[in-house]
Queue: 2 jobs
Job 1
Amino acid sequence: GNSVTQMEGPVTLSEEAFLTINCTYTATGYPSLFWYVQYPGEGLQLLLKATKADDKGSNKGFEATYRKETTSFHLEKGSVQVSDSAVYFCALSDQAGNTPLVFGKGTRLSVIA
Amino acid sequence: DAGITQSPRHKVTETGTPVTLRCHQTENHRYMYWYRQDPGHGLRLIHYSYGVKDTDKGEVSDGYSVSRSKTEDFLLTLESATSSQTSVYFCAITKGQGDGYTFGSGTRLTVV
């Protein structure tokens, strides 16, 4: 079945550091891929998505590129801020969109000033 | 303003009692979901609905039931709460399963 694997956390970075959170997936065909963010005490929010190979999703300075050849969708940001401290989830929807999203286990990011 | 609300936000209940959590949406979306979030497990799907009276099980459905008698409401019932059901429960909605989800703010349930 479909699955998503994220790098284990927590990740601790200094302000203005470069961020990468790895995400790889297993699925048939061409799934849609998503990154969600969860701030403390809140529900998840959609951060960005990509629906086909080589697409780049971007939002709030975050980017992720859909790499079919490596089945990856790594999240990156060039300069993190304290306000980026949150839990980040990678998720996958199958190609036909017939089944619910499958989520990774989440990666906690802490950014220190 | 997000169009989805969960109630209650917090609840403490005793083992063996029934508990119902409510998810209400104003977006008229077809799909609704219940997830639970636990440390080390991420988000796990309990049940979902693809229309009024149309529901299906997720990966952790044992001990839970759901009902959707109206488009806007999706109820999650713990028939007889156990300590293993202590968790944070999230509801989510979407107009299409290939689209992004909108999540509620969650219900923190403690079973003592």
Job 2
Amino acid sequence: QQQVRQSPQSLTVWEGETAILNCSYENSAFDYFPWYQQFPGEGPALLIAIRSVSDKKEDGRFTIFFNKREKKLSLHITDSQPGDSATYFCAASGQGTGSKLSFGKGAKLTVSP
Amino acid sequence: GPKVLQIPSHQIIDMGQMVTLNCDPVSNHLYFYWYKQILGQQMEFLVNFYNGKVMEKSKLFKDQFSVERPDGSYFTLKIQPTALEDSAVYFCASSSTGEAPLFGEGTRLSVL
């Protein structure tokens, strides 16, 4: 059972546009939601994360919007740059320190100059 | 910044043989994880540790898998015997807080 779902699977935007990557989850016990960025041949790197007590988390050009009632969240990348072209993974974990992360299948973002 | 180191970066092995994947986590991290990624797809959880003890194993952590910490520093993931479906990139990760683990660059395992 896929606990974390992402859409779209791939997205292409022009440089300067806002890219929006969506994520939804099944498990109500999930309370921590990191987004990871992965470039080809590299490991995933933490980009930004949010806890379920918040509805928004911003870090520079990256913003997470979180809707606990609908079990949905989205990652907005404003002023997209070609260097943002990567695969983005939405992940979730439950309460309990050290809990495993459940990952979505990823979304491949391409930013065209 | 701190890095999780994985050796080797690529391993090619014949089906049925044993393989050992090595990972050197960040030195002061107490939480440790192994994940499996097939063909650039989602990361699948295998096992996690706290302070050297297993916390949880997933269904993907088959009987052929074992994890050790030989000398208290680096971790190993051993697969014996290997199967074709074990071909994947294996990532280890570590964390000081139990959240937002820091991932290594992975070991690409090719089972022929």
